[in-house]
Amino acid sequence: MTALTVNGRPVRFDIDPQTPLLHALREAANLTGTKYGCGVGDCHACTIIVDGEALRSCLITVAEAEGRQVVTIEGLSPGRTHPVQQALVAEQAIQCGFCTPGIAMAAAALLARNPDPSPSDITAAVPNLCRCGVYPRLVRAIQRAGRVARRVETINAAPAPGIDPGDAARAVPAMDRGA
Fold first, then answer.
1. 3-state SS assignment for residue 56
2. Using CA atoms, how far apart are residues 75 and 6, in angstroms rounded to an integer?
């Protein structure tokens, strides 16, 4: 049995120790925010933070994660309040959203060690593939997140998670069909 800490909680995986951590997180821990992209580490969609470092979870085994501190997108911040999450929304740097968790994790790890990154720092530290091509907005968002983390600026753009049940149940007026 492999023991590690995931999002601040002790976790034990009773699975083959050679299982990629990506699959353990998604299937055994039900933390599906970490995405399976290519399975060979090229796309970076599965990026998580392990002991403060952005790593591709498809390339690290459960055994290699033994005793380590792992943070997934679900554990980045309660209520989606991390500066990276807020800045990605504020800068409209999210399109389809598939690559977003991996980008957010790589950016959070970068800002933890360099709160004022240059565009070239960002390009080097966040090599994630985005098929929607939002790269210029990503750079702006990550730089903005750095300013928020340094308390130079604030963002009030990120909505609270979830939908208010009253809003979800609200009736939508029917279109006038001339009846």
1. strand
2. 8
DSSP string over 110-121:
HHHH-SS--HHH
Q: Which structural domain, as residue segments, surrounds residue 124? A: 78-149
- Give the tens place of pLDDT for each residue, 61-120: 999 999 999 999 999 987 788 999 999 999 999 988 899 999 999 999 999 999 999 999
Q: CA 12 to CA 5: how far, in whole Å? A: 9
Q: Which of 72, 75, 69 is nearest to 4 (CA)?
A: 69
Q: What CATH number did the domain enclosing 142 receive?
A: 1.10.150.120
The CA-atom distances, in angstroms, between 134 and each of 70, 113, 138, 141, 149 are 27, 24, 6, 10, 22
Residue that is written with structure tokens 């005793």 in the block:
67
Look up tokens 């943070």; give the residue.
71
Examine the domain organization and report whether 71 and 82 are in the same domain.
Answer: no
Q: How many domains does one find in the chain?
A: 2
Residue 16 is assigned to a structural domain of this protein: yes
Q: Are residues 22 and 50 in the same domain?
A: yes
Q: Do residues 127 and 143 lie in contact, with contact meaning Cβ atoms separated by under 8 Å?
A: no
Model pTM score: 0.86
